[in-house]
Amino acid sequence: MGTIKQGILGGFSGKVGTVVGSTWKSVHYMRALAVSISNPRTEKQQDQRSKFATTINFVKTMTPFIRFGYKEYSRQQSAFNAAVSYILKHATKNDGENVSIDYNKALVTRGSLMPALDATVTVSDSKAAFVWTDNSGMGDATTKDAAMLLAYNKDREMAVYDIAAATRADAKAELKLPANWNDDALAVYLGFCNEDVTNVSNSVCLQDTPANGGSEGGGSGDGGIEDDPLG
User: pTM of the full predicted structure?
Assistant: First the structure.
């Protein structure tokens, strides 16, 4: 129960309905009563928190790259937050025991620029060798579009990348990898941005190596275009 000390217009202390009154350094103030959450750690809430933490850990390994890769979405929020939002919603999975990233669905670059065509990658000798078909003139693709290369190491939770490794017309590029990555599980991506970095393509995952070796497959090289790549 609240207590009024100086009449109806004075300050009060204690709880009155959903308001709490108090005094600090002779100043009277009121605050809303905190809402009691009966079950703050439901299974659904814990799953969402795990997905959020997993997504943050993935995106923060490539923050400088993401600033370019999600530039089309940085008008009302940061590119980092835009990437987290997309990957959290579209590229996290829970197998009942662990939360993980679905690397084939994750986009490290995202936008409406024409994506890579017929792209493949070969990883050997501490490098990733990319090749693709020059589709300049198809849609808004131009010969000067820059190839954006990225390799994410699942075992070490690290990423290496090159934001302008070659042009679309070059139809090939190489990304150097650390020598001690030879036996590690990698997810390897290719995207494009236009010359003034105002338009970016959806990335495609060209290799997704599981931790126990082998391959889980990769993207088709068509950029993973959805019905609405900006939606």
Answer: 0.76
The pLDDT value recorded for residue 40 is: 60
User: What are 136's two structure tokens?
Assistant: 């300049």
99 touches 52 (CB < 8 A)? no
Helix boundaries (H) for the chain:
43-59, 63-69, 79-90
Domains and CATH numbers, the chain: 3-32 (no CATH), 43-208 (2.60.40.10)
**184: alpha, beta or left? (left if phi > 0; alpha if psi -120 to 50):** beta
Contacts of 136 (CB under 8 A, 6+ apart): 142, 143, 145, 168, 169
Amino acid at 16: V
DSSP β-bridge partners for residue 205: 189
Q: What number of other Cβ atoms are within 10 A of residue 30's Cβ?
A: 12
Q: Is 52 helix (H, G, I), strand (E, B) or coil?
A: helix
- Span 113-125, pLDDT tens digits: 999 999 999 999 9
Structure tokens at 88: 């959290």
| Short-list 186, 189, 180, CA closest to 219 | 189
Longest dimension (CA), the chain: 83
DSSP 171-224: -EEEEE--GGGTTS-EEEEEEEE-TTSS-BBPPEEEEE--TTSS------SSTT
Report the length, in residues, of the chain.
Answer: 231
